[in-house]
Amino acid sequence: MTTTPAAPADLSALTVGQELARTRHEVSRDTLVRYAGASGDFNPIHYNDAVAEQAGLPGVIAHGMLTMGTAITGLLDAIVDPTAVRAYSTRFTNPIPVPATGSVALEVVAVVGAIDEAAGTARVDLTAQVDGTKVLGRARATLALPAAPADGSAEQGAA
């Protein structure tokens, strides 16, 4: 996986339009086998071209939950504290065909889409593509923003 930027995001200073992460993940048949073993999802459309094609797919495809989980990893790295993620949702818009040899690149960009100061949250929009084709739609994570001190100061307990 390739991730930028390297510096952690300051959740107290986010701005709408700010790019938090840009990642590239290589997905191969080996990736699918490892995921199937970890998840218990041994549906043959994820390892058998003939079965996948009989199901109307272009061939073996990546697991949807593998795609969803992989898509958020760059954001998790950028925010450092994964407990800040309060919600994450997406729609699967296109399957990711995985070649028999080599790999395919899943490219993900995470950008701050909205900030709700009253709720203390930020919405991060994720764009996930393979070869320019969008594979996730409405991929969004809601982050809890750090609470500001009640008196507005950065220090508490100072005498």
UniProtKB/TrEMBL annotation:
Molecular functions (GO terms) = fatty acid synthase activity
Q: Looking at the UniProt record for this protein, which Gene Ontology cellular component terms does it annotate, in alphabetical order? A: fatty acid synthase complex
| Name listed for the protein in its UniProt record | Acyl dehydratase
Q: Which domain of life is it from?
A: Bacteria
Family as reported in the entry's similarity comment: Belongs to the enoyl-CoA hydratase/isomerase family.
What region holds the MaoC-like domain? 17-127
GO terms of biological process kind: fatty acid biosynthetic process
Coiled coil regions in record: none
